[in-house]
Amino acid sequence: MTLEEVRGQESEVVSNDRMQCAGRALEQLLVSAKKQDCLTVGVYESAKVMNVDPDNVAFCILATDEEYEYDIALQIHFTLIQAFCFDNDINVVRVSDVKRLAEIVGSDESEEPRDAHCILVTSPSVDTLKDPALEELALFCEESRSGYEWVPAITLPER
Fold first, then answer.
1. What pTM did the predictor assign?
2. How many whole angstroms separate alpha carbon 101 and alpha carbon 105?
């Protein structure tokens, strides 16, 4: 085994550890934000919030799964949301498990499962949402961008 192969395996292990930590942090952030009523769930609802008050958006999660992978309309929405997030310095990640995200954020008042393709973590006032999980995810996003991964993918922990 060459030195490059050993280094490649080491970086793969570190990458998997980073992703697992980021997945746990994302779940913690969502649970915490839900308790504080700081979540906006749904593509259209998120677009409205970003249009009205982008300064209160702290984090953006875009989710898809195999069923929606080739949904052109959804991908166009994702592209526009990502561009908006980049323009407004909002960290954004991708998650490939919509059902798991929907479990975490729960259902709406009518007990219908929510459209969890886009979730915003908002901060109703300055410094209200100081969450260690949010800080960990911001660091994860920053490290990913330094490696030219502009929208990092996160895997949520299994239940």
1. 0.81
2. 6
